[in-house]
């Protein structure tokens, strides 16, 4: 797309089409959602479609990719707060259908929490469409370099570059949590469809590695090459290094 505005509107349109199709079939649409700067315009468009074009989220179930750890849900930087602010507070989704990894779980119970998160995804029938951004490290979710294709939902240590990129949100890198809970690469690869969004020249190099590089743990996003249905949605700047 020539710009991220057009790209975001097109991506939101695909999500809306899925939600409407599932509603016609009389079953829920299960969405995997991302946070960060990339999908904000897309969420704004989903809110508009709800408010102006009658798009209902009553039959939508969501699972977010990740959350910082530890993180209180009402914290300025929490992904719970982010999702409320950009999407959930403005649509008719049922609160019980929203799932976001819990940054308040005691450390010795995180493994059990993660196991249960995976179970909830399975019980919901699996993810129909997973929305992704990409980090400069090549992470999807918070699967930093070193994350294998079979990795599952777990507690991870954030990469230095990721913490640098988050520094402004936390008023300094020293305040950025060192860990996060994230769906695994294996969890993400089980989604029926995947839509990865990236904007701007800062993402051009990692987009090239993801699309054209060899599959490797060093760039976990390369594992998307294994998946049968991935749409990579880019603006011109993010696509600039593709051959
Ligand atoms: C967020 C997430 C991350 C971001 C990535 C890009 O839930 O899982 O992988 O998608 O860090 O972040 P932005 O969009 O801020 O460039």
Automatic annotation (TrEMBL):
Ranges of residues in domain Glucosamine/galactosamine-6-phosphate isomerase: 3-228
Sequence intervals crossing the membrane: none
Protein name, as recorded: Glucosamine-6-phosphate deaminase
Residue range from the parent sequence: 17 to 259 of 641
